[in-house]
Amino acid sequence: MPIDAHLVPILRAATARIVPTDDLPGAAELRATEFILGFPEYADSYNAGLAKLPADFDLSTPDAQDSALSQLSSDDPHFFDLLRRQTIEAVLAQPSALWDAMGFVVTA
Amino acid sequence: MTGNVRLTQVARRWDAIIIGSGAGGGVVAWSLAFQGMEVLVIERGHHVPFSPPDRDHLRNHRLTQYGHNVGPSLDDRRGMTTGDDPTSATWHSPLEWQYNNNAMGVGGGTSVYGAQAWRFKPEDFRMASIYGVPEGSSLADWPISYADLEPHYIEMERELGVAGGRGGTQTWPMPPTAPTVKGQRLAAAAGRLGWDTQAVPLAVNSVPYNDRPACVNCQHCVGFACPVDAKNGSQNTFLPRAMETGNVTLITDAQVVHIESAGEKVTGVRVVQRGKSMVIPTDRVIVAAGAIETARLLLVSQIGNQNDQVGRNLQGHYYASAAGITPESVYDGVGPGPSVATTRWSHGNDGIIGGGMLADDFVLLPIIYAKRALPPHAPTWGDEWKNFVRDNYRRTLQVMGPIQDIPSPTSRVLVSPTETDAVGMPRVVLSGTAHPESVRAQTFLLGKAKQWLAEAGAEQIWGSPSGQYLSAGQHQAGTCRMGEDPRTSVVDPSGKIHGYANIWVADTSVHVTNGGFNPFLTAMATAIRTSSLIS
Ligand SMILES: Cc1cc2nc3c(=O)[nH]c(=O)nc-3n(C[C@H](O)[C@H](O)[C@H](O)COP(=O)(O)OP(=O)(O)OC[C@H]3O[C@@H](n4cnc5c(N)ncnc54)[C@H](O)[C@@H]3O)c2cc1C
Ligand code: SF4
Predict the structure, then answer these.
(1) Which architecture, in CATH terms, is B1-49+102-162+232-313+407-426+475-535?
(2) A26: which chain B residues are within 8 Å (Cβ-Cβ)?
């Protein structure tokens, strides 16, 4: 079973707060949601975990989203860690302007 | 080297069959080929390609988050338990630490390793004599000394190609790899502390060597195959040279599942390749399948275990690993990375059994940095995390090194009486945990690592001892230890299995203790010595 279609906007909004966009690309530009959708084996965890965020999460303000995520991290640390870990993997395991800003340059 | 040899093409009698093409197996193939023997090397993995270079940061042998670039297959399983009962095991995939994977492919671990090419110190062969035997441990001296191995170390460094320049009393065949900003800073700090340092010896071409090019200082050394084939392992040195003689055939994707024997003689091996199974006869067998798989094969074949020694004393390396943040950037991205080391704390440490070497680390991939090298107080998500990562990656300085693991007879390889793998071979179950003295030595060396970082100007320094766990992993060793006494060892000082006429072990399994150093060069030196004693 894949991640429920109605939860995908929530996933998109949550990853965008875990690695926000500033002068450098964040989870949105680096397609963290698509990365996570590529792991159907975790879909059950995402369906259960994302359902714990408010139903209007994706429409809330960034501050409200951050507090909801903090709440999630104490209510369901296991799921929050999966979400956080995969978002960061999506963002840092591929070449991007973030690598350039960190100074990691692939020379050969 | 071709990878499509079929079982039917090797169905004949061989002078010698070598099981495994890693650090030990490659060297033995090369040596026996030049002795004029007709040799079959059987490898259960396949060739690791060099081009295009594989650069998946989440699926490699440094970070096996979702896969790896060398086998075993992800649906394989090994069990983990604590006592002697293999039926109480929990089961783990090759991506979990409990599996204790090294690497399965042509070249074994040497195809994707970090290539730190250390000799053990003379004291490393005499641990029991120097320190006594702590309670609960099976600490013992090697039956051979550093002096016995020294000529073989020298030969292996020359034939494989090791860069190290000069250090202590040693000179290596190639100058050291490029100095790095981190290395220079740490070397200066060690100088102020009065600690001797040296370049990290690496099986990497710092200059063109043996008809292959020099290292181009890429960022993907450990865990990956080299993009220019400048990293030296069995697959590009001993194996091809052995095959050029015309005496050696390599068959890949073929797993030995049983060694056939009659009395004190082995007669052949049963091999499975692509669903076909066949017994191939041979006059000699050399087992070089790595410390866990070698023990498994001998246990399954009921060879050498008359005194319940096969699989015991499984060990690897506890690591002391500390990091800190420097005021300015110390990053230059110059690979491989490890460029300075001290062996000042390998021995002679008050109240500690052994000790270990400390060195700087390989170039950190960004995702590995984020997962493993952030300080405990670092933010974990959001703008703060992003800013932290971006500001501190270039300012992170790490020092780490392996300590002498203190072996225990209860840390061991067992085989499951009920579970079998895809080709019907009983699955491995690992049991035991680290000896408390290993944790003590780790804690000690961690203190030295932190002192070094502080002297190098790191301002926030962290790193803590690991709890007790079974130490094996990529540095797995010890499961068929070498000794004079068949009651406490599996192979004799030549590497031949006690009580047998024509079967030898030539990999890290024979290590009595695993040194306070990365182990592959010692496995090669011991293997070449064993080959010279095979008749
Ligand atoms: C990422 C990484 C980094 C490392 N860095 C270093 C380093 O810097 N320095 C260092 O000293 N060491 C390093 N090591 C460890 C080093 O690779 C090992 O110590 C070394 O390869 C062990 O040699 P071996 O001959 O015992 O076994 P291996 O090299 O593991 O070879 C065993 C071979 O046998 C094959 N085999 C197993 N069972 C069977 C069977 N039943 N039938 C047929 N074939 C079989 C395996 O597939 C494998 O290819 C590293 C390892 C890894 C994975
Ligand atoms: S650092 Fe050098 S030897 Fe290592 S993989 Fe890169 S180019 Fe090859």
Answers:
(1) 3-Layer(bba) Sandwich (3.50)
(2) 386
